[in-house]
Design goal:
Helix content: 40-55%
Oligomer: single chain
Shape: globular
Strand content: 5-15%
Distance between the termini: 115 Å
Radius of gyration: 27 Å
Order of helices and strands: HHEEHHHHHHHHHHHHHHEEEHEEH
Largest sheet: 5 strands, mixed
Number of strands: 7
């Protein structure tokens, strides 16, 4: 009699604890940079310090894009492609479509910065030891140029930052065709980026080696021609869309009547041009200029130094943001030459010297800035009373109202209303006038706002107020302007005085 032995299932091995796979370095660097720069942008919003220039302008453009229209801003009073050729702002429109709130643009800008930082870290890690890569990533993330970008609301140049990081990374890796390819979308960021595209092509031309040298150089020449054609096209679009038929790039940057000094001197009331050059050099510990990649920064610095408009000489605005990825990856290119063959590490002393110089430079720039978020201030982590007052005021006004708001109040109203800027320089038509009396702004002093509210109440106009934020209902839609103590240029009688 046969019998079949029962099958025995072997016991399962003891379960092993799952190992958590650490985030890759570039991803972690990007996440941390995203957190920092999102907080910097939202902290300004939470403190009630955002401005119609430029957050309100780009929010209105984003709303236009999201509705399927070209980017129009009531604050600027024109279709924005008639001021700057920046079709890349359609990405702001995509963010607005997901979350119709100006803060969506702040988050989008932080994401663009985060991508750039991740690329910097990945490049540094390919060419340097982990310690040196971490230092370069830290310097890039906290660089004064990127902090100045995100602490001052939003700007279209944020989209140039990751493109330049990718382009310079490819140059550092000697992937020259890829470098030129990454640079071409810069033509869609702003009309002044054509020379930078040409500079990338010039560096690729100089670095071309080996059997493919001629092919790469032909592509470099083609890229320069595309940069020229793209710039001409951008100027043509601007001139066509501009109500005055001009290119503001020229009238603003190189208008003789705005010159404080001869454009090619190095001093106005100190040495602002020299200070700009010194600060940019120090952002990479001075040594980054030893890399041929430093040539990519030359066009941006050149037009700023040649301009007679003093704001372009400043390091306190967003203009240096496009230079920071160039500085960081050029620094990687220089540091990799110092790597010791025996240890594979960058010597500690020069690395520390670069870090001290760069961090000190950024810290000094933060000190002189008009607003950098304080992490110890609870108002930077949640909407402050001022921001809540502006939000409540916006909710009290009828949706879609035509509002003239001073610069500090404008961005808090754009999601629900048609906003124009209240100024003491020219009248605008509006149904409501909104002011925030907390601070002096670019378009109105605190004293002028307070005086206006007193006059409105004396005239019996309806006033809605939340804290320091107040809205005044005009007797009818008509011209309004802010009566500034000390006089105004000749302006038409405002509607609250002239009546309907």
């Amino acid at each position: 009699m046969s019998s079949t032995a029962p099958s025995v299932t072997p016991p399962a091995p003891p379960a092993r604890a799952r190992r958590r796979t650490p985030l890759p370095g570039p991803v972690l660097a990007g996440v941390l940079a995203f957190a920092l720069h999102t907080w910097l942008g939202l902290a300004r919003w939470n403190a009630g310090r955002s401005g119609a220039y430029d957050l309100g302008v780009f929010a209105q453009a984003a709303r236009s894009w999201a509705a399927g229209n070209l980017p129009y801003s009531d604050i600027r009073g024109l279709m924005l492609l008639g001021e700057h050729f920046s079709p890349v702002t359609v990405l702001f429109g995509a963010a607005w479509w997901v979350w119709p709130d100006p803060r969506s643009l702040i988050v989008t800008q932080a994401a663009a910065v985060a991508v750039a930082v991740a690329v910097v870290h990945a490049t540094a890690r390919r060419h340097l030891d982990s310690r040196a890569a971490a230092v370069v990533t830290l310097l890039s993330t906290t660089s004064y140029g990127l902090v100045s970008l995100t602490r001052l609301d939003v700007h279209e140049v944020c989209f140039a930052v990751p493109l330049l990081a990718l382009s310079c990374s490819a140059l550092a890796d000697r992937r020259l065709t890829a470098a030129m390819g990454w640079s071409l979308p810069l033509l869609l960021v702003k009309e002044d980026q054509g020379p930078t595209v040409a500079a990338v092509a010039a560096v690729a031309f100089l670095l071309a080696r080996g059997p493919h040298r001629r092919r790469v150089r032909r592509r470099a020449v083609l890229t320069v021609l595309l940069a020229l054609a793209g710039t001409v096209l951008a100027f043509a679009v601007i001139r066509y869309g501009n109500p005055d038929g001009e290119v503001p790039l020229f009238s603003l940057r190189f208008a003789a009547e705005t010159a404080a000094v001869d454009p090619f001197t190095w001093a106005a009331d100190g040495a602002p041009r020299a200070l700009l050059v010194l600060t940019v050099l120090a952002a990479g510990g001075f040594v980054w200029v030893r890399s041929p990649l430093a040539l990519v920064a030359a066009p941006t610095l050149a037009w700023r130094l040649a301009s007679d408009h003093e704001s372009y000489w400043s390091t306190g605005y967003h203009y240096d943001a496009v230079l920071m990825p160039v500085v960081a990856i050029a620094l990687v290119d220089v540091l990799r030459r110092t790597t010791r063959p025996t240890t594979g590490r960058v010597p500690a002393l020069p690395l520390a010297a670069v870090a001290v110089v760069a961090l000190t430079t950024s810290a000094l720039t933060y000190r002189d800035a008009n607003y950098v978020a304080d992490p110890l201030d609870p108002g930077t982590w949640r909407p402050s009373a001022a921001a809540q007052d502006l939000a409540a005021l916006s909710a009290d006004l009828p949706a879609g109202s035509l509002v003239a708001a001073d610069n500090g109040a404008g961005p808090y109203l754009v999601a629900r209303h048609t906003v124009r800027v209240l100024s003491n320089l020219e009248p605008v038509r509006a149904e409501w006038v909104v002011v925030d009396t907390r601070i002096d702004g670019a378009s109105a002093s605190s004293g002028a706002k307070t005086a206006f509210l007193a006059e409105a109440r004396a005239a019996g106009l309806p006033v809605v107020q939340h804290g320091a934020a107040a809205a005044v209902r005009m007797p009818c839609e008509g011209p309004v302007w802010l009566p500034e103590p000390g006089g105004n240029p000749p302006l038409p009688e405002p509607v609250w005085r002239a009546g309907c």
